[in-house]
Design brief:
- By secondary structure, this protein is mostly helical.
- It folds into two domains: about 170 residues, no CATH class; about 70 residues, no CATH class.
- It is built from eight helices and two strands; from the N terminus they run E-E-H-H-H-H-H-H-H-H.
- It has a two-stranded antiparallel ribbon with strand order 1-2.
- The chain starts with 14 loop residues before the first strand and ends in a 17-residue tail after the last helix.
- The C terminus is likely disordered.
């Protein structure tokens, strides 16, 4: 494709501030702010009795104070492990020490999700909290962090889109002499803003927190659908390319399709429940 007219790439330094060897990046701040927002928002949800069955919340705000550490560990370990396994395994087999070089980039949302799911399962079992209720609460605020990280991807001039002639195309500094889809912004809007507003509607207008696993299912399905859609505009990872010689199938699609199906299943099978008294719940009731 010949070079096309494009919008200028904004000159935003990926490093917010640097003091000696210590550098603060927009990418890292996006993760931190996203985790803190999801924690704050989840605490708001569990202090609003109107949203829950019989006005009885399934956990205390203090539980979420403790869970934030578990969540951060799950995101980082799961995200890094997922990237290594799903996107660049041959490189890390050849250079295993690079696995620890997280400052060089390389995080997978799908791996991070699996890490957080494991953390939620173990934490909820240890506290006698319904696992799906914890998932619903956490999922409701996660899209904000997703949107921030995608905007950081744009600032970093990474994960850009395929060449295009749309009027809002951008010529990325390291994307060759091509006008490309700003696919990071597409993802920020769909996975971030739109998905957050949908979940907000479900929690506060449709009161779906009264129906365990519906909100969590909506989050999983919404992300899966958004990611599959944007993958049609996003350049595939260079080390993977298109899968099976299709010219369109990407690893992001392959990993997101099970999410879409699992989310639809969760919503379809969710039923309203009457909150049991805490004394009746078994310690490992999920």
């Amino acid at each position: 494709m010949l070079p096309l007219a494009a919008l200028p790439f904004p000159n935003i330094d990926p490093v917010i501030v640097q003091i000696g060897p210590l550098a603060v990046h927009w990418y890292g701040v996006g993760y931190i702010v996203g985790i803190l927002f999801a924690w704050w928002y989840a605490k708001r949800l569990v202090t609003n009795a109107r949203l829950w069955p019989d006005g009885t919340v399934p956990m205390k705000p203090e539980d979420l104070d403790d869970f934030i550490v578990w969540a951060a560990i799950g995101v980082v370990l799961g995200g890094r492990t997922g990237y290594v396994l799903f996107y660049d395994l041959p490189r890390y087999i050849a250079h295993p020490l690079d696995i620890l070089a997280v400052w060089q980039g390389g995080m997978s949302f799908h791996g991070g999700l699996l890490g957080v799911i494991l953390a939620m399962t173990l934490f909820s079992w240890s506290r006698g909290i319904r696992t799906w209720s914890l998932f619903d609460v956490v999922a409701a605020g996660v899209p904000v962090g997703l949107g921030l990280v995608r905007m950081a991807n744009f600032i970093n001039s990474e994960l850009w889109g395929r060449p295009t002639d749309v009027p809002w195309a951008v010529e990325f500094p390291n994307g060759g002499p091509f006008a490309r889809h700003p696919s990071q912004i597409y993802e920020a809007l769909l996975e971030g803003l739109v998905l957050f507003l949908i979940l907000r509607f479900l929690t506060h207008s449709r009161l779906k927190l009264k129906t365990p696993r519906f909100v969590g299912g909506a989050f999983i399905a919404g992300y899966g659908l958004s990611r599959i859609f944007v993958e049609f505009f996003r350049e595939p990872d260079q080390q993977l390319g298109y899968l099976l010689g299709t010219g369109w199938l990407t690893m992001g699609m392959v990993l997101s399709l099970p999410m879409l199906l699992a989310g639809i299943w969760a919503m379809a099978t969710a039923t309203e429940s009457v909150q049991k008294p805490a004394s009746i719940l078994g310690k490992h009731d999920a």
